[in-house]
Amino acid sequence: MLRSPSGPLVRLAPTFQVTRAAWSIRVEHRLVFFFFCIGSGDQHRRKTKKKKYLLKQEGPTTVNVRVTGLAPGLHGFHLHEFGDTTNGCISTGPHFNPNNMTHGAPEDEVRHAGDLGNIVANAEGVAEATIVDKQIPLSGPNSVVGRAFVVHELEDDLGKGGHELSLSTGNAGGRLACGVVGLTPL
């Protein structure tokens, strides 16, 4: 469920509706499908078919973002550590940072795994972006599943702004909207 700092949001599949912004985010990774048939030759027993999905570890994750209702301009976009929205977007915690690095740009060697840069809202307040990143896998110990994407009020200075918050948050300001990453059937 998405939340804004002012409270819970209404979910409209596949887009989330917020008081100030509507957004949809799609996270993609290559899947490997394995099919197993389980059962016996006994005619009185039902054969069951199981489908198992395994995520490939190699390769980047693609995040397709569309956010509406924003102020025109740049907005920081990050993956935060927790998928907890009990206190709005504040309870999502800090940027996801499993390697204990300082804040940086998505292309920097030294950065939080959750540092995904900025999305740009046009004059109509619509931001669309495709982000491809190797540090945010859908499986394994650093999985994005259960964490939260957050759209920030201001531009992320990518750790280069010289502000006291530059190396921790990119000085990107308040949290406008957030959503927990979960898996759903295709």
TrEMBL record:
InterPro entries: SOD-like_Cu/Zn_dom_sf, SOD_Cu/Zn_/chaperone, SOD_Cu/Zn_BS, SOD_Cu_Zn_dom
GO cellular component labels: chloroplast
Coiled-coil ranges from the UniProt annotation: none
Domain named Superoxide dismutase copper/zinc binding: residues: 58-181
CDD domains linked: Cu-Zn_Superoxide_Dismutase
Protein EC: 1.15.1.1
Pfam family, one: Sod_Cu
Gene3D superfamilies listed in its UniProt record: Superoxide dismutase, copper/zinc binding domain (2.60.40.200)
Keywords of the record: Antioxidant, Copper, Disulfide bond, Metal-binding, Oxidoreductase, Zinc
Domain of life: Eukaryota
Reactions catalysed according to its record: 2 superoxide + 2 H(+) = H2O2 + O2
CC cofactor: Cu cation; Zn(2+)
GO MF annotations, alphabetized: copper ion binding; superoxide dismutase activity
Function description: Destroys radicals which are normally produced within the cells and which are toxic to biological systems.
Similarity comment: family membership: Belongs to the Cu-Zn superoxide dismutase family.
Assembly: Homotetramer.
Record protein name field: superoxide dismutase
Organism: Eragrostis curvula (weeping love grass)
